Amino acid sequence: MDAIQENIAWFNSPVQYVKGVGPYLGKLFERLGVATFEDLLYHLPFRYLDRRSIASIAKTQPGKQRVVYGQVDAVGELALGRRGRRIFEVIVTDGQGYLTVKWFHYPRKFFQERFKKGEKFLFFGEVSLFRGEKQMVHPEVTPVKEFFEEEDFQKHLGLVPVYSTTEGLHQRQIRKALDFLLEGLGDRLAETLPEVLRRKWGFPGQAESFSRIHRPLDEDSPEVWTALRSPFHRRLVFEEFFYLQLGLAFRRQRAQVLTGIAHEAKFRFQEALRGKLPFTLTEGQERAIREITRDMCSPRPMNRLLQGDVGSGKTLVCLFAALLSVENGRQAAVMAPTEILADQHYKNFSRLLQGMGIPVRLLTASTKGKERDEILELLKRGEPAIVVGTHALLEEDVAFDRLSLVVIDEQHRFGVRQRMVLMKKSEQPDVLVMTATPIPRSLAMTLYGDLDLSLIPELPPGRVPILTRIMYEKDRPKLYDFVREKVKAGQQAYFVFPLIEESEKLDLKDATKAYEKLKEIFKEFKVEMLHGRMKNQQKEEVMGRFSRGETQILVSTTVIEVGIDVPNATLMVIEHAERFGLSQLHQLRGRVGRGGQKSYCILATDFKQSDLAKERLKVMEASSDGFKIAEEDLKIRGPGDFLGTRQSGLPDFRVGNLVSDLDLLEAARESARELLERDPQLSLEENRMIRPILLHRWKGRLSLAQVG
Predict the structure, then answer these.
(1) How far apart are CA 589 and CA 599, in angstroms?
(2) How many Cβ atoms sit within 10 Å of the Cβ of residue 82?
(3) Tens digits of per-residue pLDDT, 49-69?
(4) What pLDDT, on a 0 to 100 scale, did the predictor assign at position 456?
């Protein structure tokens, strides 16, 4: 076994085999997501306590920030004035003097249990004088026994790392386990970044990086270390991004050598559709159609992401692609995440292609009996057709004979493996994935580094900007008057809620209760409700009545977020708007303003919300640009929450941050691409160590090529 394989085997060792851990503590570590030696090394401190020198109480000067080591001598509570306000006091001594430590706001029971006579603590704060006595008010407190072994705590002073932990697992136990791993780490760890890259970017070695992060030196800066910006942190971030980008570039390279279906450049059906459209396509739509057509006519399988804001006309672009497939005597499958959206696509396609003799079929969980059998038979016979469906397309008995195009709408709603199942129903079909969730550049580079990108930056002409306003509870009567006025004028409105059932943890309005109340308030109109737990047929019926204008007000949970198109709906009220991510709010807002009339989006929220929540809603008020909103959303929520799914098939980020580490992401991408251009098979001697590390980091996911 060579050094790298030994490295990987050691990395994969269960954490319970770290000296001093064992099965019991091993289970506690696993609660933190620390299952192996590697996980423990990557369990980085989230901050550092500055304990570089301890001051003697007798010698401390007032007005200075100091670390004081002391033993609790007395504990008590004092009443302040007549109003019953209390102060918690702890008198500590270091054998040379006394210091009074005070808190004016404190969790009483916790403090009474924590500060027992004889217990030892480190106190960090400003020393001041009160009536001639030295005191510290609201200092930072470190219980000596939690962080250090009693006899050797003096050795550990300096910058003390603080780790996220769980009940029953102390800081000192984490530090002790890490001490065992870090001992002799330089001899054990083989370097995992090629020498040429380390020299180019000036990075330290891996073993040195782990050692300095977990055991910083006295001259290191606690601020830089806490912000994860030290050269040692940045090296680990670069390495993480480098192997991510290398894997994506490798997948892309492999997809390019596959042989797919080269469609002939036949455009009779496309031209016929153009002639039926009552409007001109935007430049963005035309460019996307050209790029997709070029891909479909090449022998390499297409693997393209079509990205455009809400209402930019992506669905029409995918129909042009489907027509090229059908004119070549082949089949196209369009998969949507919900039955409502699949049904909408089916109806739109059928209407647009009326009289052209092109079969369009709908296959969902609701397609039953004879109708389903006929569709399956048509696909099995290889008849040219467009089939629109949901997860039902993935079922085993759905077999295509001449499938050449797979379109996946709102692709972040599907797992990688689900997308793979659909693609395996044919030999290397062309794949087009579409999303209306604007994805910031850093995330697109990360998630879709192995896809070609088509962008529709503009909205079709005639789309009126939606007026967005924040509304606080006190203005609710005015809101109801406004809704009444619009609905009386023949328009329709949505009320959207974040949940369908009461939650004990979140003080949210229950959509069901609100529905009853709104029915009472708007007695003169038909009000209906739509939520995710309803049966599909019920949903279809409710949505159908709203689409036809039979229902004036629709109370809904977020099931309307994706793709629903009701041109007469001009008003949306989003309740508890602060509970939604910005991108989700933008998606919801895109359900109105689809018919050319002036439209409104009201963000209803509680005035007690935090400044951050208010700031986020102000971004929505100020901007209608989905890409700008997405950038803000990514900054605020981070990539995990932004995507709302763990199905992307990518390695988890341990240290990298797609917002603050964008420079390293770009450097890693450039390095990965240059490396593969020089050595496509990673067979050169200096790159041999990369292959096993790449496979280890991706844990088998490199086989998921060509699915985005």
Answers:
(1) 10
(2) 6
(3) 777 778 888 888 888 778 888
(4) 87
- Helix (H) / strand (E) element for 348: namely helix 339-352
More confident residue, 129 or 227: 129
pTM of the model: 0.65
Closest Cα partner for 249 from 563, 688, 670, 696?
Answer: 670
Q: How far apart are CA 425 and CA 403, in angstroms?
A: 7
User: What's the pLDDT band for 441 if we cut at 50, 70, 90?
Assistant: low
Bridge partners (DSSP) of residue 362 are: 388
Facing residues of 401 across strands? none
Q: Please, are residues 395 and 422 in contact by the beta-carbon 8 Å criterion? A: no
Rounded CA-CA distance 541/537 in Å is 6
User: Which residues does 208 contact at the CB level (< 8 Å), separation at least 6?
Assistant: 186, 232
| Residue at token pair 């997860």 | 391
How is the chain split among helix, strand and coil, in percent rounded to 5? 45, 20, 35
Contact 197, 693 (CB under 8 A): no
Domains in the chain (CATH in brackets) are: 3-49+160-227 (no CATH), 53-156 (2.40.50.140), 268-456 (3.40.50.300), 466-623 (3.40.50.300)
- Give the distance from CA 627 to its chain's centroid: 15
Asked whether the predicted pLDDT for residue 707 surpasses 60, the reply is no
User: How far from chain centre, in Å, is Cα 501?
Assistant: 24
The token pair that represents 555 in the structure block: 């109370």
Please write down the HEC assignment for all residues of 366-434: CCCHHHHHHHHHHHHHCCCEEEEECHHHHCCCCCCCCEEEEEECCHHHCCHHHHHHHHCCCCCCEEEEE
What value does the mean pLDDT of the chain take?
Answer: 84
- 328 contacts 340 by C-beta, under 8 angstroms: no
Radius of gyration of the chain (CA): 31
- For residue 260, name the pLDDT band (cuts at 50, 70, 90): confident
> What is the model's pLDDT at position 117?
92
d(CA 653, CA 9): 21
Q: Which helix (H) or strand (E) holds 435?
A: strand 430-435
d(Cα 337, Cα 321) in Å, to the nearest integer?
20
Looking only at the bridges linking them, the beta strands covering 466-472 and 599-605 are parallel
Which of the pair, 218 or 680, is modelled with greater confidence? 680
Nearest to 423 by CA among 412, 407, 435: 407
pLDDT tens by residue, 497-551 = 876 444 433 434 567 888 899 999 999 999 999 877 778 778 878 888 998 999 9
**Cα-to-chain-centroid distance, residue 153:** 41
Give, rounded to a whole angstrom, the gap between the first and last alpha carbons of the chain: 34
Higher-pLDDT residue of 1, 165:
165
The closest of 328, 317, 332 to 263, measured between CA atoms, is 328
Q: What are phi and psi of 659, to 5 degrees?
A: -90, -55
User: Under DSSP, is residue 662 helix (H, G, I), strand (E, B) or coil?
Assistant: helix
Nearest to 347 by CA among 319, 317, 324: 319
Query: Mean pLDDT over residues 564-583, rounded?
Result: 87
